[in-house]
Structure formats: structure tokens, C-alpha cells
Write a structure and sequence with these properties.
elongated, Arc Repressor Mutant, subunit A, homodimer, DNA-binding, Tetracycline Repressor, domain 2
DNA sequence: ACTTGACTATAATTAAATTCTAAAATATGA
DNA sequence: TCATATTTTAGAATTTAATTATAGTCAAGT
């Protein structure tokens, strides 16, 4: 009865919520103004938090950005792996990857903008290890899937770097255009064309 | 016939060698440590110049990086356009683009690292207009070339964004791996595979 | 030799990230 | 319920690095 009435936990939020607020505010600022142009003060203002709070939850501005990047890329990559493992034939697998990539971009435009518009990679210094491990694991999984189908004679025996380049390169370039507002073609049509092209480049059957 | 005594076009002609030294020093620092981690002091030390000198030649750290980016991308893009216009048939044109892209990366590894490793785009705020104009002109030229061959029935009638994605996406993804040290395949072989794939995706003949 | 203006060097200034200190909230346990 | 420990928050103080201001050098033209 002393001071409990003062804070009915709507004004003062508990920690995990506050962390979430900071992340979402930072994501919004970063996609809107870019990483270097947003100050900690900007993020604080949008999140309704103080600098101390921000620095309690994240070691630095760079690590905050990296946390956002990692959360996004983790969701994207696990989805990609799921999409892949759900398919039996190599053709279906390739189609699933291309389609999932583009659907993810369409469904998560703000995250995609952050991940694919080349607006990261400056603060990666802080997190290179996390990042590299995550990406390496993803590439390894996809490459492993390719390997089994290569051995079965269903996929062309190309080295891993070319497989990745031919499969994901077009997706990423289209995504970059899409999140920058330079893509005229809608996502579904793009997915169809690029999946067909990927299969033509990588597949071995009719 | 006696006109202006002063230098006609330039407002103030910067000492070219010192400017060059600053650019090369900055390029080395940026590719080595990344843009945000290199301080003006780092660049000064490597160039043997003073901060005043740097700021005399470039308005800001961002503009210095942008100048480097623009110089590199200009060289790359003019070379691409030349490679394209030197070829008559659409097939040769596509092969020439892919090969030139990869040869440029191989010949200019430091510039390529700066341009293709996603380590730019943070300082672009300063220069977006220059950058956008340059890229738009490049894309327009390439797309125009495609258009004539599409009308001749030699290239598939795909929208510009997909043409670019299918042609340059794989090149850029391979380049990214190459400059990061993650490409196992050598450039020549990659060029052959990716040119063939691009032609398979875009061409209409046998 | 002197003036001019581009160029350079060093010393302020400023802006923004990070750290520090302590208060407030929340959880824990008798 | 209360006391205490831990987590979270706030805002001021500090630090770091970019930028600007000031002053000086050098080369060419008069």
C-alpha cells in the first residue's frame, strides 16, 4: 500500500519486454535512417528507454545491431532448412528454397530490408564469430543436401561455391532490389522464374 | 582567344598525388579493418598526411569512402559496358559480361573487396544521389542492350529486375565469397559455369 | 620580392558512444 | 509481511573520434 499503485506494470515493463522494445525500436531506426545515422538517443526515444537501459541489455550499439541481425538470419535460415528438408526430390528442394527465400522477404519486409540491403556488415566486427559460425552451418547443411543428390546423379557435380552462387545469388540480388523498391516484378512471378532458372542451372534431368 | 586564366572547370585543383595517397591509404585501411574501425588518424598515419589535409581533399570520412567507391564502381561499370558493346551476338554479350566481371574482381582484389564485400553502403547516405545515378545509368544501359535482343527474339522477354538478378546475382555472390576467401573454385572455371548458366536462363536459341 | 591561393599541420571544438553511480523495481526467503 | 539481494533503470560524467578553425607553408604569377 506504500507505492504499489504507482506502477501498474503497463508503464514500467519488465525486462524481457523492454529488451524487445529496444530491439524493435532499433530495427525501425536502422531500416529507416541506417546504422551510423541512428544514435543511441534516437533508439532510446523510440523505445521509451534510457541509455543505461540500452547498455544494460546490449554491450554496444554494434552488438545491438548484431543481435537484430542474428535473430533475423536465424529465423530465415531455419526456415530455409525446414523448407528444404520437407521436400524429397531435388527439384522440389530447389523450388522450395527459392520460394521460401522470397516469401520470407515478402513476409518480413523490415527484417529483410535490414538483412539484405547491405546495410549490415559494418558492425559485424563485433560478432564475426557468431555470424561466421551461423552462416557456415547453414551453407554446410545446404551443401550437404546437394551432395547427396549429386551422388545420386540428380544434381550437377558443381563445387559448393558455384552451387550457392547459382541458387542464392539471383534470390539475393532480387531481394536487394525488392527491399530498395527497385523491383517491378512481384514476388510470386520472380520466384517462379528464378526457381526454374536455378533448376536449369543445377538439375540434371529433363 | 584569351579566356579565363584560372583553371576552367575545377573550383580548386587538389594536389593529385597527395589526394591519391590518401585514397590508397584509406582503401587499404577500409579493406583491412572495415570502415567504422578505421579512424581518420589511421588514414593519416598510413598516408603520411595530416587530418587537415584529409579534410581539405574530402568533406568527410564518409565522402572519402564514397569517392573510393565511386572510382571503383566507375571503372568496373565502364569496363562492363565496353565488354558488352564489343560483342555482336547476345550470347557473346552475356559471356563477355560474366567474364569481365570476374576478371575485374581477380585483377582488382582490393577494390573488389571494398565494393563487393558488403562493407560499403553505410556511408552512402552522403552520396546516395551520385551512387544512384551511376547505378541507374549502368542498369539502364545493360537493360537497353537486353531490350534490343529481346525484340529480336534472341533473349527471353523477362522484366529488367529478373534479367539483372539472373545475370549478375550469381557473379556477385561468387565475388563475395571470393573476396572473403570462401571461394574454392578458380575464377576462370567459375566464369565458364556462370556464363553458361546465365545463357541457359536468359537466351532463347539452341 | 610580393601577393595570391591552394595545400598542410596542429590546436580547438563538438558530437556521440560508452561508462559510472545510485536509485527504483522486482524477486527471494524467512 | 518484511528484509535483503538482484536486476533493471535513469541520467550525469567521461571518453573517443570526427569535424572545424586557425595559422602557417609552398609554388607560381606579377
Amino acid at each position: 500500500m506504500i507505492l504499489a499503485m504507482k506502477t501498474p506494470n503497463a508503464t514500467h515493463t519488465a525486462s524481457p519486454q523492454r529488451q524487445r522494445e529496444i530491439i524493435m525500436a532499433a530495427l525501425a531506426c536502422f531500416t529507416e535512417k541506417g546504422f551510423p545515422a541512428t544514435s543511441i538517443a534516437d533508439i532510446c526515444k523510440k523505445a521509451g528507454a534510457s541509455t543505461g537501459s540500452v547498455y544494460h541489455h546490449f554491450k554496444s550499439k554494434g552488438r545491438l545491431a548484431a543481435a537484430i541481425y542474428l535473430e533475423g538470419i536465424r529465423d530465415y535460415q531455419t526456415g530455409m532448412i525446414d523448407a528444404l528438408s520437407g521436400q524429397a526430390s531435388p527439384r522440389e528442394g530447389i523450388f522450395a528454397l527459392v520460394h521460401y527465400h522470397l516469401m520470407w522477404v515478402k513476409k518480413n519486409p523490415e527484417w529483410a530490408r535490414f538483412l539484405f540491403q547491405k546495410r549490415h556488415a559494418e558492425y559485424m566486427d563485433d560478432t564475426e564469430d557468431d555470424m561466421k559460425q551461423l552462416n557456415a552451418a547453414f551453407i554446410r547443411t545446404v551443401a550437404g543436401w546437394f551432395q547427396t543428390h549429386i551422388q545420386a546423379g540428380k544434381i550437377r557435380p558443381l563445387p559448393r561455391d558455384l552451387l550457392i552462387a547459382l541458387l542464392l545469388g539471383p534470390c539475393q540480388e532480387y531481394s536487394r532490389q525488392y527491399v530498395s523498391g527497385h523491383a517491378a516484378t512481384d514476388v510470386e512471378e520472380a520466384a517462379g522464374v528464378m526457381a526454374a532458372a536455378a533448376w536449369a542451372a543445377l538439375g540434371m534431368d529433363v
